[in-house]
Design a protein that fits this description.
The longest helix has 22 residues. By secondary structure, the protein is an alpha+beta fold. It contains 4 helices and 6 strands.
């Protein structure tokens, strides 16, 4: 899959910095878009669910890892967690751990994500090293 994203730019941003605040509440729909943009370079597919109802306090993100595993993620103020093992699927009986960041969640789900993230970081460090000399 070709992606028009520079991984070295994505790894230094944080979706919390890109969120939109509504009073004291983050709009999770906009937060979800920022999450997707941050890590799209390191997964096979990722998008905000259009069929599950998102609101200012919850959003759902579909992700397919580089290994081909599909997940439906829930994003709330508590963090991100897996709520289903297929796109647009919410299993009410599933009780999974919340992760503070998308990086932490994907790190536990996908060795391919870890490798892509590490490679992007090494490329960025190499570029910084070359520019510094």
């Amino acid at each position: 899959m070709e992606i028009d994203c520079q991984p070295e730019d994505s790894i230094v941003s944080s979706f919390d910095e890109d969120c939109v605040e509504l009073g004291d509440v983050k709009d999770m729909r906009l937060e979800a878009d920022a999450v997707v943009n941050d890590v799209l370079f390191a997964v096979a597919e990722m998008h905000v669910s259009q069929s599950l109802n998102s609101a200012s306090d919850v959003a759902y993100i579909n992700v397919e890892t580089r290994e081909g595993n599909r997940y439906c993620l829930e994003l709330t103020e508590a963090g991100l967690r897996v709520v289903g093992y297929a796109f647009n699927q919410v299993d009410e009986d599933l009780s999974t751990q919340y992760h503070e960041t998308v990086y932490s969640l994907l790190d536990t789900l996908s060795p391919g994500y870890r490798e892509a993230f590490g490679n992007a970081l090494l490329q960025r460090l190499e570029r910084l090293k070359q520019n510094g000399q």
